[in-house]
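Pilot study result, target chain (254 residues):
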Amino acid sequence: MPAESVSAKAFARESLAVLDRITGSAGDDVARAAGLIADCVRSDGVIQAFGTGHSQAIVLEVAGRAGGLVPTNRLSIADLVLYGGEAPSVLDDPLLERESGVAARIYDLAGPSPQDLFVVISNSGVNNVIVEMALHAKEQGHRLLAVTSLSHTRAVPAAHPSGKKLADLADVVLDNAAPRGDALLELPGGGSVCALSTLTGVMLVQMAVAEAASLLLASGEQPPVYVSANVPGGFESNLELEKRYAGRIRRRAS
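Predicted structure:
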């Protein structure tokens, strides 16, 4: 790729082209994902969203944001400290997410109900804690929605002892269409710059939430949706909605 193709305009052009492609081609998968979300809400379930690294940006789109569904939880490795009594220094280990048993501990701390839906997000789909969470959720009988890059996951070997990848375990996969390694623009001297998976992942999950809201409305149900806390009455309205899920959803400063 010539040097002039590495620019703000180039990233906008290339990323918008991918967004246009996935919004046109992912309809069936988005509809299936929306069905899982709507079924979870109808059955008084909670959507448990988990990711590591920059995938946490998409977890934040799923759980506890204005315009998003109320029955949602954000799960993270930090839960070991916030809710599990571990010393903060445990998070200093950059290889913690590769340790066996971490995902099961995070799961137990969340205390999910059988009808809860797990949304697990990972661009590569091979990280040990990601696959372990997906395996554990399925073993416990949960439905599983994955957001991952099929291009990336197909290009790298499985890292989990089971030989499984996130996409192998999910009931529905939303392919974020990010390239292997995530970065979109090739540099003349080698390597690439500007990651794509956050943009496309956000688009896919918001499309799925929108479609789930449509399904709920079509069956005469009002979607339980957050109002911005920064509009008059929003904070109070949200507290009222959260009462239905008392003890099952967690909200913390962030």
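One observation from the pilot: The chain has ten helices and seven strands. A full batch analysis is planned for the follow-on phase.
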